[in-house]
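Ticket #4471: complex job returned nothing on first submit. Input attached below:
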Amino acid sequence: DTEVTQTPKHLVMGMTNKKSLKCEQHMGHRAMYWYKQKAKKPPELMFVYSYEKLSINESVPSRFSPECPNSSLLNLHLHALQPEDSALYLCASSQERGAENIQYFGAGTRLSVL
Amino acid sequence: KQEVTQIPAALSVPEGENLVLNCSFTDSAIYNLQWFRQDPGKGLTSLLLIQSSQREQTSGRLNASLDKSSGRSTLYIAASQPGDSATYLCAVRPGANNLFFGTGTRLTVIP
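Support reply: We reran it on our side without changes. The output follows.
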């Protein structure tokens, strides 16, 4: 099983809402990632968790707050977003942080901020 | 900063044709290079991963090559099928976690 599951698939929210994106994997991977992908652009790394600890934060605004409650779950909490935050948010996981480890991606959550 | 470019941006071919997608990167200090496929509005599917010490990898009708010193990789697709229609992304890994993605090539295979 090489599946990374993301929920919801689609999300529409207002600028004052609070919502969360969820990501789950059961491959025993210890590294998990959040990427943001704007239309017709490549994905850009946002956060990396390694062994449930935040190891990389690519200067992402504080209105995005990641959380890794356990080794299988990764959340992205959203608050006071802007319309320009509308994008496809992709979660990925890999066995460990090492460069030889393949990252497996979920199908993404398409977020629209009104 | 690493920059990854893919040419062409879009490609349309008739079914059955062999084709080559190109990827170039500016910094040759990479651990590996990975090719992904992305269907419209969907996530990424890993196709092939080439370690920096390798020259090529093959999987079925796909063959990827890597020339690290010149900063280039190619993805060769043999006997293309309509189901191959998708956007193909290459990504290089300069560090343990970073993946720098290319701009993508949108492939359409015409039946």
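The longest strand of chain B covers residues 44-51. Closing as resolved unless it happens again.
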